[in-house]
Each structure stands twice: as C-alpha cells, then as structure tokens.
Amino acid sequence: MEERRVVGWAARDSTAIIFPYSFTIRNTGPEDVTFKVLYCGLDHTDLHQIRNEIHMTNYPLVPGHEVVGEVVEVGVSVNKFKVGDLVGVGGIIGSCGDCSSCKSNMEQYCKDRIMTYNGVDKDGKPTQGGFSSAMVVHQKYVVRIPGKLAPEQAAPLLCAGVTAYGPMKQFIQSGKAVVNAGILGLGGVGHLGVMIAKAMGHHVTVISSSDKKRVEALEHLGADAFLISSNAEEMARAADSLDYILDTVPAVHPLESYIQLLKVKGKVCMVGVSPKPLQFDSDALILGKKSIVGSLMGSIEETQELLEFWVEKGLKSRIEIVKMDYVNEAFERMERNDVRYRFVIDVAGSNLN
Fold this sequence. Notes:
GroES-like_sf, oxidoreductase activity, acting on the CH-OH group of donors, NAD or NADP as acceptor, zinc ion binding, oxidoreductase, ADH_Zn_CS
C-alpha cells in the first residue's frame, strides 16, 4: 500500500521529552477519512504512555488522542463525511466489528481494539497519534464536530469529556429525583465531569485534597459542594451521602475514605489510570453493598452524543492553547497540576519541523 510522509513530534524513549519526527501514513483507502490535524488535547495518559508506565510503549511514539481536524480527502466508499468537514478522533481507531462489544456500540472494550497511538493497525504498522500534521482513519471511528462548536473546544471532549459522560449516563437512576454525584479530582477529566454532571441535573460534590480549588469548583464550574479529603471531620459528616463517585485521579491514592462517602449500593467509578496498584479494605464494600467499577473512554456513539449535548447545553471547555514547541513544558505543568484545566495544542499553527 502506498504511503505519504507527515511531520509531527514523538518520544524516543521514556524520558518524557518529545522531539520533531517525520513518519509515513497510508494513502486514503476506500473507507478512510484523511484530515489535516488542527488541534490536539493533552491527556495525562499521554505522559504515562511516554514514560512506559502503562502497557508497553513502542518508540518512537507520536502521542495524542483528542484530535480535531479538517477533512482533506475521503475514500470512494465514505458516505459520512466530505472534504472540508470538521471531524474528531478519540482513543481508538479500529476494532474487530464482530464481537459482542462491537455489536453493542461498545467497541472500546473490543479485545482487538486498535488504539490511536501505541497500537498496531490492521496493516501491521504502529499507530501514531495527533501530534502530527495529518492522520488517516477509517470512517467508522471518526466523529463529526458540530458547526456551533469551536474545534479547539471540541478536543478535550474526545477523551476526557466522554470518559466522564459515558458512566454518568449509566448512574442516572430511573425515578430518582436527584442523583448525588462526587467528582474526585479537579483536573482535565474532573472539571468536565463537574460541568456534565451539573448539565444532567445531578447534585455535585467536588472532592479534593486541599482547599485550593474551592472557589474554582463552586463559583467557576458550578459545583454544589466542596469536600476536603484530608479533613477527617468533613469526610465523616459527608459519609453515606453520594450515589456515585467519579474517580479521575491519575495517581496512587487511598480508596477507603472515599468508599465511606457512598450510600448503600453506591459506586466508585475509576476513570483515572494509576501507574501502580491501588488498595482498599473489602469490608468497606461488603457492609454497604458498594462496588468499584471501571470505565474506558466512551464509544463512538457516546462521543458524538456528547458533542451534541455540549452544544445543546451551551457548555464551554476550560482550556489553555499552546503551540507544539511548548509541549514538553506543558507536560511538566500538567504534572504539577498547573493548568486550568486542559492543554490543547494548536497543531496547525505550530512549526512541526
């Protein structure tokens, strides 16, 4: 199969520093969409993956899985998109299409899913992400960016946003007047989680390790309550008050104190990836019929649904736009939690060479 050369930025090893990099992508196949990359969100998983902290990283690695672009070419069998459309790609670019997960619109759980980067495509080549000038993706794994949604605003929704949106939909209980939601961690996923939960009508409590983000949570993002996890008295008063907790923390942290916040049959939903195992006391679950569950990104259907929901509710992502030559510093700041709340790279406006 013929290929075309593109430019981007890649990690060459686990030092978490990325450099300019030139590589090839396939030419547009019958069901492919080829697009010029405009923007790409920066996710904590990118840093874990660059450092070889999760899965096994194959270098050189071009990160980026919150990718927004403009279509420049479509295959002869493509009927969903046309040249000039604004499109998005999230965490996966392929799956088997035949398993129960794929047939249930949960292709992100397919055992043969193809990750947007650090995966192996069906042609045997390593997949590379959105820190690049262009991408080519099968139309099934591409979503349409609504006309009323700015492309840079859409980028964080393609992973962080749908990671929160997917499980939250499941936690809406039929006939229940108010769902009491806890958001643990107020970073890239957490801040979007607060906004989505509020737009769904949930009563939202932000749980944080310090008081630093209280004003942001309550006044800027519209949370209903703020809880400091290091304050034992506050935590004790809030026991048995939450229907679910969306755990967005991408680091090692204790779970027992958060489990105590749940009502009977409450759930902690893990969406933040810890590079090391977490521990908890099983009594905390057993005595309240509570559970710990996980959720991976969102389906293509849920991603499109979230984009439309975002426009319908008039929501706005809190982002800081940077150029590609700032990305190493952006990773350092992200690790220090020094961003409100998501970096988005202006790929098209960057010098990639």
